Amino acid sequence: MTSPLLPQIGVDPPERGDAARNRRLLLDAAALLVAERGVDAVTMDAVACKAGVGKGTVFRRFGSRSGLMHALLDHTERELQQGFMFGPPPLGPGADPIDRLIAFGHARIAIVEVQGEVQRAAENSLEFRFAAPARAVSVHHVVSLLRAAGVQGDHELLACSLLAPLEATLVLHELRDLGMSVERLGNAWEDLIRRVTRC
Amino acid sequence: MTSPLLPQIGVDPPERGDAARNRRLLLDAAALLVAERGVDAVTMDAVACKAGVGKGTVFRRFGSRSGLMHALLDHTERELQQGFMFGPPPLGPGADPIDRLIAFGHARIAIVEVQGEVQRAAENSLEFRFAAPARAVSVHHVVSLLRAAGVQGDHELLACSLLAPLEATLVLHELRDLGMSVERLGNAWEDLIRRVTRC
DNA sequence: CAACTAAACGGACCGCGGTCCACTTATGTT
DNA sequence: AACATAAGTGGACCGCGGTCCGTTTAGTTG
Hints:
2 copies of one chain form a homodimer. Chain A contains 10 helices and no strands.
């Protein structure tokens, strides 16, 4: 993975022309496969074949299936990051930190509703579940908001614990298998945040 | 009519002798492999070979690798259940529900410390991560304690959200990758419970 | 004991994720 | 234009999880 999520920090050498072209081909092929045959149909062979390249190339570009899925989510993830870092309230700066936390959860749940299957596939790998830059950004964001809300304690761990119930796999389970509504999940999140930040 | 009297509803027919014998052989083989070569060495072929049976038998008995791992954890899981259902306080009945919740989390974290790798392998399958009977029991237990503690709101979802940060994969990440101590995790859990149940 | 049946067995087989490495090509340099 | 070389490529190959189905066996019935 040579394209970190938001923080464009560090200077990685530019990609060669053909490599960039193939990355696009592969991403398009993968997105197309998701759209028309579902996420399970996105095998590395199928993507390679559809993009007209060899299988090795897929792995060179994305490292693993989870990495490919992660790349597929990159755009949405960036949008969310933009939203809570620079966008309008209540998600962005300006609103009460507690309201921002609530909005953050709502946004995440909404994303799961749309891209949950792909997110779940991406979460299969430890690397992209916990060590991904995107996650670090989220954790840091929640930590900041907790601090801003005047919450005392172990912010880092509290943030991890609050993010845990937003994991795509769990949310998807609650939505699909348990038949819960997005509204219900949103309300529960808001309730959780209010409880945690109260006092 | 040769049908047995009182057909024992809800009780599935007993296992055949050879099947029971092979289950034991397989579980022993798997446990041995974990102990001496780590959880990654527990491939279905290796277990089958070590137990002296065919690969198909492993799948017939346990359904999947996750199922096998789950079976490996069964004993510990039952002990925990016994502990919080019938054991002494603060885990068992008699103590303040909030203290019982705290003790429950501590117990789970302690288990992860010992069997985390196997738990993580078991969590790989959706089936055993969310649909397992053991999980249902845990959820129900937490719901009961929340009610007993006088907490208002969506107990079901709150329980799910509280259990999420106790998932082995996450706890293992916090312990191993982030280098956090068991004490710190325990404190964070206690803090979370106190916040959620306060007011 | 013989006959019968449902359960258990085993291993060939499949598809997928992932690795490897000999080969090709884009790009900067002289 | 020729060259050097780092980067990119592709597909054969591997191991594993999981399936399938013809064969074997435990337990039951008369």
